Amino acid sequence: MNTNHTPLGPKADKESVRRHNLSLVLRAVRDEGETTRAGVAARVGLTRAAVSSLVEQLMESGYLSESGKTFSGQAGRPGTVLKVTRSGPAGIGVEINIDYVSVCVVDLSGTDRVRLTEHLDNRGTEPAEVLARGARIAARTLESAAEQGLHPVGVQLALPGLVSGGTVRQAPNLGWNRVPAQALFARALARLRPTAPELPVRSENEANLAALAELWFGGPGGLRTFLYLTGEIGVGGALVLDGELLRGAHGFAGEIGHVVADADGPLCRCGARGCLEQYAGQSALLRAAGIDEDAGVPGVAELERRARRGDTAALAAIERAGTMLGRVLSGAVNLLDPDAVVLGGIYRELMPWLSPAADRELTARVVSGLWPRGSGRLRASSSAGDAARGGAALVVRAVLADPVAYVRRDEAGSDGDGPAAGTGDGSAAGAGDGARSDGSGSGADDEAASAGHAPGNG
Question: What angle is formed at CA 138 by the lines to CA 61 and CA 131, rounded to 5 degrees?
């Protein structure tokens, strides 16, 4: 007998099925924007009676509201239009980067409701102070969110470098090694809000969260498999495969900025020579163009202005960066076979001058022949593809995956003992999928009869 079986886990009970179906209904309404009970029933495969029971529970818990409008697009009498509420649970994402901190609050619909960004140089500053800066900006953002009736249920930190278990193992451009960033940030935020419930804090690499934002909020086209690069002072990367992050054995996949572009090149902060970052990072670009490499955002804006004017040094600096990007990317494309490469951060604004050189290298070096110049496979990120928004959305997706858990946390006095606000792996939205049993509560028999037909990931 084969004993190498995958653990099956516990049998689904009535509560598990109902919690799963509550998630299905909530996500179905969120995805449609506005819909009716009949529309939800058709979407998720449950009966109208079961959906009505679930909708009532979600409305009582503050997740759904009725707009007052009616819609007669389905057979039968017109139905009242449902939508997710603009108040209530939300997510907060906090991006700590080398020369800025950005904080974003996203509501259940995925709408960016509050955004605060401060440009400051975090290099040479003690990690605890950098994280305290982020906490201060987050606290102000929470106040703004409360004014709109939103109460974020968790914080997702977006951090540069190698992030694992709440610790930044290495962030060369900040000079961080084994910094317990998650705990430091949580303590700083709690000190600023002594009378408020403590929020769960999770942490993740910033490029991973920016890639998830691109996956969830990117423009038309529905990319599901792509390589994402973010150009800042450092160069970060992430790979999304069929809608899921490829994290690697230890969670460190995607450090493309430290792939060697020229073994005899300049020394990198990581200790190696010729890393891509030394040719295509923000500091390298500004320095090559004759602009102060520490000028930050104004420096990048000046580089763009000079490129538009046809400045020789600026154009040469961007072309060299594009060439080195193309060389490294061609190796990644040959190895991983993504549908596209998406460039974010400062690359998004520099694409008109950056992409021709990168395209040229990809055309010459990708063996599949699927990357000819002008193929559109090398593209700029959407304006919504940033790490803070990705982090906030990851918190929201955890709420959508199990809304009952977050109602219980609130009813218990928001003591922070509920489920984590995000797993960091992009899979929160599917949590609880697959639970099947006989249902419970009003409409339970209809739920149970239909449960086997409900799609797994509304």
Answer: 135
Query: What Cα–Cα distance (Å) separates residue 320 from each residue in 105, 276, 327, 358?
Result: 37, 11, 11, 9
Beta bridge partners of 106: 91, 112
Report d(CA 329, CA 38) in Å as an integer.
48
Alpha-carbon distance 349 to 346, whole Å? 6
Mean pLDDT of all residues belonging to the chain: 85
Calculate the CA 250 to chain-centre distance: 19
Specify the pairing of strand 79-84 against strand 64-71. Answer: antiparallel
For the chain, how many helices (H) and strands (E)? 14, 15
d(CA 344, CA 295): 19
Note every long-range contact of 128-131, with CB atoms under 8 Å and residues 24 or more positions apart, other chains counting.
128/184, 128/188, 130/96, 130/174, 131/96, 131/181, 131/184, 131/185, 131/188
Smallest Cα–Cα separation from 207: which of 191, 187, 230?
230
Mean pLDDT lowest among 58-72, 277-291, 356-370, 412-426: 412-426
- Residue 364 CB neighbour total at 10 angstroms: 12
Helix axes 48-60, 14-32, angle to 10 degrees: 80
CA 83 distance to own-chain centroid: 23
Q: What is the arithmetic mean of pLDDT over 46-59?
A: 93
Query: Is residue 298 a contact partner of residue 309, using CB atoms and an 8 Å limit?
Result: no
- Taking Cα atoms as reference points, which of 185, 168, 160, 174 lies closest to residue 238? 160
DSSP H helical ranges for 47-109: 48-60
**Other residues' Cβ atoms within 10 Å of the Cβ of residue 373:** 13
Provide the pLDDT for residue 431: 33
In the beta sheet, which residues pair with residue 164?
167
Residue written as token pair 């058709």 = 42
Contact present, 112 and 104 (Cβ < 8 Å):
yes
Query: Look-up: residue for tokens 């490499």?
Result: 293
The mean pLDDT value for 360-375 works out to: 92
Of residues 248, 278, 261, the one with CA closest to residue 172: 278
Residue 100: closest CA among 79, 86, 121, 82? 121
Top pLDDT among 288 and 444 is at 288
Q: What angle do CA 38, 44, 47 make, to 5 degrees?
A: 55
What is the C-alpha separation between 118 and 137, in angstroms, rounded? 8
